[in-house]
Write a structure and sequence with these properties.
Structural class: mainly alpha
Strand content: under 5%
Helix content: 55-70%
Largest sheet: none
Shape: globular
CATH class: Mainly Alpha
CATH architecture: Orthogonal Bundle
Order of helices and strands: HHHHH
Distance between the termini: 19 Å
Number of domains: 1
Number of strands: 0
Radius of gyration: 10 Å
Number of helices: 5
Length: about 70
């Protein structure tokens, strides 16, 4: 998993003031599933990437390629 993506979703979540559990609930997944994405152990599906973008109000491209803090 791309380290930049992991950092970006963590930064976006923190910027939105959400916990991992809150994001997981919004996505309909267990907290450990979302935590694994932030830690780079697994990666989300395209559908989950779209939902992450909606939750964090950013584009998928920003989540994947943005090299500056959100």
């Amino acid at each position: 998993m791309d380290k930049l993506f992991c950092q970006n979703i963590r930064s976006a979540r923190n910027f939105c003031g959400l916990t991992q559990k809150e994001v997981a609930n919004k996505l309909g997944v267990v907290e450990s599933c979302y935590a694994n994405w932030e830690q780079g152990r697994t990666e989300p599906s395209i559908e989950m990437l779209r939902k992450l973008g909606e939750i964090f109000q950013v584009s998928i491209d920003e989540l994947i390629n943005n090299d500056s803090p959100l």
